[in-house]
């Protein structure tokens, strides 16, 4: 029995090893075949968008810089002088990033898709999906990336510049004194000279720790069947992670070098904000210490850093010296700064959760799809009620951005968001309640910085609506305001029972809620994936409107035909009654009556 069990385990282990290496090499072959096609589509598409829209980007940026009033003439001239360098950086980063993204996406996506086929239980499905997955889907995905990037460059960036131009000017105009220009230039150059080599050195020196500690964590999870190795279906993908971990380490080094460029250039901003050359130099020194401490925390090395970290921001209380240069090995000795540690891609080496544990966490894709379906449902209701029309939908499809067709581009998402919040409040939900009892709370929401930026304000807005306790008339008026905004004619034309609020305080509260909601939707609409998904919603609404018009036309035609048939039947019946039995209808005309004889 023991011998048979050991042989069975040996055969099973051999099968797993054979299947893993077969998928490994077959995925690499698919990457070599499909990768060049997907990479060429992505590289040519993104580079074409960058170069094709580059003159327009320059024109839009210069026009916005000249129109805004928060900068004085000297500061505008300084920005105009710096624009060629900034646009040169944009071209370099955009083209290089497109090449790296195209190669990485085209090669690794088919590779990973091959291992994802092991999630199926049926062996034939595993084999089929190993062959099919990651081929045509990768090519379609590269086209989607190009489309989203084009939306961001052609729609989101001009919309952002337009909001800057139309925003009310600040009471305090930002001014640039000529004496600060040399200091900004010198400190910016020094920041590049210091940050790039030191960041590179720190990243390279600590890369072996990242490599071996990462391997140790993954192998520990593999042996103990923890984290990503808890489910058998995820073992192949987790095993692939062990093989490609050196590439992750190399990517973290490159990203550290890339981030050091912008961190070094930010020293010029510190000089301008603090009006101090020495504080700019202090920032350059402090950022090296911040980066060293940041990597120590991620890699579980010694706490703090031995490098000096001077204070580069003005303190609220007086200090004995302008700078406090000291190590920060202890928590009490750490100097507080107003800037977070510089960002670096450093994979977490903490014990990872299993896939089964993360299933309970709501994914961003689910939230995105649920919001779009709810927006589509509310749009159909408004179309059926003749609140929205086909012309509104076509106006958004023809417009460059949502601001040109605000009723559909901004009003419809605001209206659906308002209905979501009202529904959540009525259901006494602790979070946001979406379709099919899909609830997002602080516990199950995705741990994503981007979602935090949107989720927390939505929860605050929900609490504000709940606290002021809107009555039915006020809710109806708020619906009109968020849907039509400043379009007074359409707002007054929609009779939904909402009346103008006479109380000044309540009116101000409702207007404030509508402005915050509109601002959030305008910000979200700049995301590249948003426009593609919302465009699909608008096209669905157009199809629904056409079907509605066709059904109404068919119904009217049916009523007309039925009315004509009924009239013909009545005429025939009258003629038959007048003719009498045994007499034809022709005798009514041809035979004279007795009165005429």
TrEMBL record:
The chain crosses the membrane at residues 12-33, 39-66, 78-108, 179-205, 251-272. Keywords: Membrane, Transmembrane, Transmembrane helix. InterPro entries: At3g27390-like. The keyword tRNA processing does not apply. It comes from the Eukaryota. The keyword Transmembrane helix applies. This is Uncharacterized protein. It comes from Arachis hypogaea (Peanut). The lineage of its organism: Eukaryota, Viridiplantae, Streptophyta, Embryophyta, Tracheophyta.
